[in-house]
User: What shape does this take?
Amino acid sequence: MFDKLYEELSLPKEFVDRIGIEKLNPVQKEAVKKGLLKGKNLVVASPTASGKTVVAEIAMIKHFLNHGKIVYLVPLKALASEKYKEFKKKYSDLGLKVAISVGDYDSSAGWLGKYDVIICTNEKMDSLIRHQTNWINKISLIVTDEIHLLNDYGRGPIIEFVLTQLRRLTNAQIISLSATISNANEIAEWLDSSLVKVDYRPVKLHKGVLYQSNTGEEIEYTIDFLEKGNKKIFGKDGEIALCKDVLEMEKQALVFLSTRRSAEAVAEKLMKITDQYLKGEERTKLGKIANQIENELPNPTKQCKKLANIVRRGSAFHHAGLMQKQRDVIEEGFKAGLIKTLSSTVTLAYGVNIPAYRVVIRDVKRFTGYGSDFIPVLDVLQMAGRAGRPAYDDSGEAVIIARTDGEAEELKERYFLSDTEPIESKLESEPILRMYSLVLIASQVTNSKSQLNDFFKRTFYAHQNDFDSIERQLESVIKQLQEFGFVENNKSNIVKKDLLKDHPYLNEFVPAFEVNKDEDLKATKIGKRVSELYIDPLSAWEMIKNIKDDSDIEYLMTINKCVEMKPLLRVKKDEYEELGESTSIMKNVPDVWDVDYSEFLSSFKTVMLFTDWIEERTEDQMLEKFDIPPGELYTKIRSAEWMLYSYKELAMIVEKKNVANRLNKLSLRIKHGVREDLLKLVVLKGIGRARARKLWHAKIRTTDDIKKVKPDILAEILGPAIAKKVKEEAQSGKNI
Assistant: This one.
């Protein structure tokens, strides 16, 4: 079979063998028929687990053999990591060099030019384009995964902008992979692609709705399936009944819920059931997994301990509040069949391949800020798509939980018998247009208003909408960028707004400007740096206005005004009075009746979170005081660290070195979560806040102290392996 396949594809047998299929399935056949191997652009829209990645791999092999460079774009870091491991394992010994790049948005990453396949997030690709990375014009194949996320307010504009840019910068073949969506043809038209739309799935998916059909000593439930007979099950509540039924079949269940608290609560309920189905060997392996989870942090939080206890009994929860390594361990444990039931928020609905025999969708409504509303059809279908394991099952089940048979019919109609919502561009928001307009001018892609308009006419937004509204927005954005001093008119030296009356030291950095003329535009020195820093120009302006000698708290309050730091911590009703009294240390506190007062308190509470962190409060103390789990805490820390880095870079541009130094120190403290006295220790690899404080108490407080201390004393404090590495690093002077 393999022999026939490599002849059919006209590719070397050793490569085709690694793909891992014996013959092309209907999706792959249609892709080849539509020109996959002839360099044609394709949009492949088909259900989850239908073999779309194989389509990309066939194109990748073809381009590699023709000495092309391949970029594989994904929306999530976890998905990038999964694809990197997969491709590296399959093809690296055949000479195909695979790299991954997902972080450091202030680097051109020229080193990636040495690799054949570069897997990166859309954000990283955006950053590489901004830094005018020298290998981009050598790209011959672009694979863009999960392109239906064009519809997502957070990720969509980045995907759209990156693809519009890459189409301008390269002549690459574009393979776009999508879920089954109602207007895939629109995306195909925009990208000048042929559409491959095949409703094929190697594992049959049975969709159904559960409702309570009878009461008694044990509640009776009915699963009303679309294409096979109804099934009766029994239990205390819907999700437990559905999961217990799966465990009786010696299979696994994945339960989707709307909130983190619900995911944790359901996992705790399910562990009492899963515990009964564990074998001795499984308990031993689960114990090792639980220990990894519990000891991920130097000081385990209550959440770490709770999760570890649940895992020991064969269940688990998964959400963004967990540390990434904890999530990875849980995913691997579930894939290995050790964790029997997994309760998750929508974090597992997209991207990462976590299949189960049965997917249970308990919550089809989500709080939006304006009340509770039904989640999109596409979201439900993405969750349902996790059902059915190709290597283990010939079918899978996706079941939505309803309260009554009447509601069951409504949900069946809404989610299983209706088309998905059409994918719509989300590029029109002002912050997005502001940021990308500056990027285009700073990178000299566009040098005038008309050229800027021409670029945006190539976007998916323009493909779907009348261009007049976005043209008016662009006019407003350019004017604002000029007022900020980020863009100037080459032929203008006339007007200077009164923006800087309170900031006279910035006058020389903000040029005179003129508006409403289609003359040459160029970025100023500070405007170019803002575009490279991957921040909203409005955020940059907020920081520039506050480049002055100030307290760390005021610097943190400044970055909290920036969109990149949203959402801020929510202030509970019983916290208003105490927080309000604490703000006496602040300048310019709004009056309690001011409409900005609530936002100010949220910002202040978030600052208190950061100040507690750099005073070396533990993750468990942070969870107790601020109700913030470690995963969410570290996300906020990374955001604050980046914004403080950007703040420092802007201070350097306007030649305020003393402010830059203070911001740099604050950024390092936020990164490591330490008081100032430990900064000379935490720069060493392997020395975190806990180990640094141990060294400090032992009167080892600088790298010179580490050089002088006896190895056995250092080993007693840090352990032999870490002590040896730290000693070598201190003596070499690297990273110090």
User: Anything to note?
Assistant: The chain has three domains: 2-197, 204-416, 430-543. Residues 204-416 form a domain with the Rossmann fold fold (CATH 3.40.50.300).
